[in-house]
Design goal:
The protein has 755 residues and is of the alpha+beta class. Helix content is 41%, strand content 21%. The N and C termini lie far apart (107 Å).
Length: 755
Amino acid sequence: MLRIDDISYSIQGRPLFEGATATIPEGHKVGLVGPNGAGKTTLFRLIRGELSLDGGDISLPSRARIGGVAQEAAGTATSVLETVLAEDKERAALLAESHTATDAHRIADIQTRLADIDAWSAEARAASILDGLGFSTADQARPTSDFSGGWRMRVALAGVLFAQPDLLLLDEPTNYLDLEGALWLETYLARYPHTVIIISHDRDLLNRAVGHILHLENRKLTLYTGGYDDFARLRAERRALQAAEAKKQQARRAHLQSFVDRFGAKASKARQAQARVKMLAKMEPITAPEEAKFHRFGFPQPEELSPPIVAMEGVNVGYGDRTVLSRLGLRIDQDDRIALLGRNGQGKSTLSKLLAGRLTPMAGKVVQSNKLRVGYFAQHQVDELSLDDTPLDVRFTLPLSGWYWQVMAGDATVARSPSLLDGQLTGPAGDLTGATGRDADAAGLRVLRRELTIPDSDALIAVTVTAPLAEIEGSLAQIVRPLAVALVVLGLGLATASVIQVTLGLRSLDRLRADLARVRAGDSDRLARPDVSELRPLASEINAALDQNAALLTRSRQHLGNLAHSLKTPLAALSNELPPDHQGQALITRMDRLIGWHLRRARSAGPRVLGQRTLVRPVIDDILMVLRWPLRDKGMEASIDCPPDAGFAGERQDLEEMIGNLSENAAKWGRTRLRITVRTPPDRLILRIEDDGPGLPPDQAPLALMRGARLDELGAPGAGLGLAIVADLAALHGGELRLERSDLGGLAAVLDLPA
């Protein structure tokens, strides 16, 4: 069992652990996760005893063996298999002693112990592990110096797995493994008989090979049950709960503090206020979880190149006289995204070096775009770097030039530019972008500073670079004027293009509006096809709506014609049955005339004739002639006040319908008088038809204009449509019907119509 009890540790004043505690039982498989630089690798070194704690304790059972993979594996003349076997120190020591021991009892003890540790099957077990990590039988017999750094790291991993320590510490074990090797390692670790702690960014490995997650955050350790996905879900739930509790506590504290601030000075509330102060003091603060800090990377947009950017034909490549890849044929275009797969040792790195120009072809032809720039990140970057190199810019070598760079680890200066001489760049901590500073001669400096951590180290590295502010401002001044001119020209061009585009667009809209006006005026029945393609769907939809409306209008006229024809037959029969001098003959004549008018309208396929004008006085005379018998029977007197030139901007039949309905209504309800008055204000026709009947209360006037509504349920039978029809006809012509109180005592129906 591994016990981590209240440990504390700092590096150069930066705390990595403060009161961290965790317990890992025997045989558990644990994944150690946390932000880069939080101290995961440092924790491994503390467990191995390579570093001393500032406080707390880390304990393991006595004689427990701790194993881990070194960061670098040396190449020697020893074979791969023998290198792995040598990692079992006890077996190697017992075998070496067995060749020199002379005491019989000691020899017996050695052989017994060798049998206990299954030493005679060691070669088979080591070979099995090496095979799982990608080493063939022939490769196992080769010296480790024949292999690259990545393969030597596999040898080191195989050695620690073979040794089977009681506590296995693995730091990114899949970095140098291919897909097959990573899958084999997952299976092997799941069956490993002892405790394993793994640092890894491989989510699949942390889901399948471990049963617990040890999370390092805010200098504390927290153990979660399950794989990484379970940990991520449970941690998210805990963070959400913590945030909710922190918000709730904040609201509670604000409420208590508000009471204290409000009533703390009042004697009557002093006791309650003091109690709330004590509650605030005892309340343990709940801190809301902090959001993780993300580093954003920007990548420049590459220049567009003509395809192909790389082409190979019959290419052989290798090292010295040894050919690794032969007869290569390959084409790469700029938009290709290629994953290079294959077993280790098959030549993936060799092909990458060929593409990057690190290797020259032994045979065949390689063609690259003359503007092609290749970025190459080597598997072992140390092999690609010259550690003695300095920045190529010679300005960093000129003493006190203002061009400086400096690298610090904690408070110690690791490296600096020759231009600094023995000086040092000082300033505030943290990342700086575009900051300013002062040189030794008080000259201004532009400062860039970045803090970072590097792999396999928890030390905080600070890189600072400066440049003379005057030189930067001078360079900027050289481009400001051309840039301003270019921006002005660009702005004017964009403004001109926008004006032209808007003008052309509005012109097309104006043309469409004019076409709609012609359709509305009856000069055209359809919209013309617009020149602008974006407006054509709109015009098509409007034309479709016009066609549909015309079809509906034609159908309505047909129905109206059918109705008119059906009414003329019974009217004719009724006229034949009545005596010629019967007062109903006049009403039949009027109905026949109206039916004939509607029949003519139904037969007409076109719209209403525009620009027609009807004189009002002849229409009134005809209506009163029809009503002479009802008026005579009631003893009513009819008076007319109408200018002879008064006219209505519409068809005569519509005016007859409106005046006839209103006059019939007045004759029905009036007692002794019927008065028709016509006035002609500018562009209008005001026609009043009044009677001296009972009239209508003001609150009932709107009801009388409703279609089918009747306020005379006890009077003569009727459909209750007359006033509604008049109102509809008036509205159709752009007018209105109003019902008012007449000075005669009855109802005044006022028609306001266009003249």
